[in-house]
# Entry
Amino acid sequence: SGVCYAELAGQIPTAGSSYAYVYAAIGELPAFVAAAGLTLEYVISGAAVARSWGDKFGDWLVLDAGMSEEWVEQYMRGWPAGFNPMAAAVSMASLAVLIMGVRESRTVTNFFTVAKLMLIFFMIAGGMTLMKASNFSPYIPPQYGIMGVARGTTSCFFGYIGFDEICCMAGEAKNPRKNLPRAILLTLGCVTLLYILASAVLCGMLPYQNISTTSGFPDAFAQNGAVLSSQLTSFGEVFTLPIVVLVSLMAQPRLMYALAKDGLVPKFFAKIDASGNLMNGTVISGLLMVFIASFVPFNKLDDMISAGILICFSLTNASLVLMRLSSPTDKPYFLEKQIGLFGIFSFLLAYIIVHCAASAFGKGLAIVLCLFMTLTCLSIKYTCPESMNFGGQYSSFGPAGHREPAFFRAPFVPLLPCTAIFLNSYLLVQLERGAILILFLYFLAAILFYFMYGAKHSSGNNYGWKIDGKYSQLVREISLPYVPKSTSEDTVQTLVC
# Structure
């Protein structure tokens, strides 16, 4: 998915991320659904991290700062309606920093990013000295098996999200066509490497069943007798985690700006103040995050957020296929139908593998679906030629622009995007059914809002989808991205960390 984002970000360097890509490739309603999913990532995930930080701060006060547990329970956890004052405080602080502007936000972000990286390197290096080979046996606990590993993958997926947020900052990047793909791939590479190292070290420090679910490294250091390292790590987590809340919220006003420019949300969100900041979108998004962080526990949010983002990723993967390839001249909309069928087959196959593979009927159905899915992908590859223009015949992205060396090109299209769609579906079907139901209701509410407001005020519906019969209103707007007056050249470099 990251590779697909990298090509699309270089070709469509505008605010909106998945929303802009899906709009250009599939249409307005799917794009609005993608925007709803991105809101889960930017606002709701920021609220979830703020809530987690509030819980961690309470634990730190009791275990390391010497506060009595009774005081913490009374004044920090005993509020009515589950109110968490520290989650509210860190959310409000992040909102205040963003209100000050991009330049000030960059300074705060850089400081905390350096501190966080130093903490991670310390945990990895210190933990390596306490690793024991016996803690890796058995490497895959038999009571969980491969399916348990896959379910764990779905949960830890939450920690990898955010690389696509770089795409929302395209209007504030220097030479975005070149730097955005680099930033996305560098982000994913760094995050993946650090996660693998940290996970391996933590599993080597303690038997897996003894690892704390809320305070992994501090507790692991303490159980190995490294009390000072435990205290330092615990303080470091409390001190640096708020930056995740800040960066999560940073992209939402840019997304709202893109939606407002297309008429899908009130123009109120597209207003820029005298300093060049999207003040209205920042304040509204920030207050929503503060409310959710204050009253909703983290464990009620994580699966729903992951599910929404997986759907966004799949829509983006499909968008790359639709933008790079074209239907045969004698079969209009053949490509669109095939990529739709592939998505359906992927979801059904993933569901059968996860929930019905134990029965003979389930195994047979899985084989049939796998065959259909493979044939559909091969049909796309060998019957749908590469488009001469990125985005199709009437695109204004330039003739054969995606063939120029200056543009990043995702390899193995359509095989790579199709594989990503299946893997996203596989992770999606393993989430809790309650989270899937809540997500369905959330998307249903978004679709209702689209028909009640967005469709009536849409720029495309009101001003027309064709201009001189050549290209759409959206493509015309893409060439005019939001660039704040207080922008800095290394905003994207900051977001990488």
Summary: Residues 28-63 form the longest helix (36 residues). The chain has a mean pLDDT of 85. DSSP finds 22 helices and no strands in the chain.
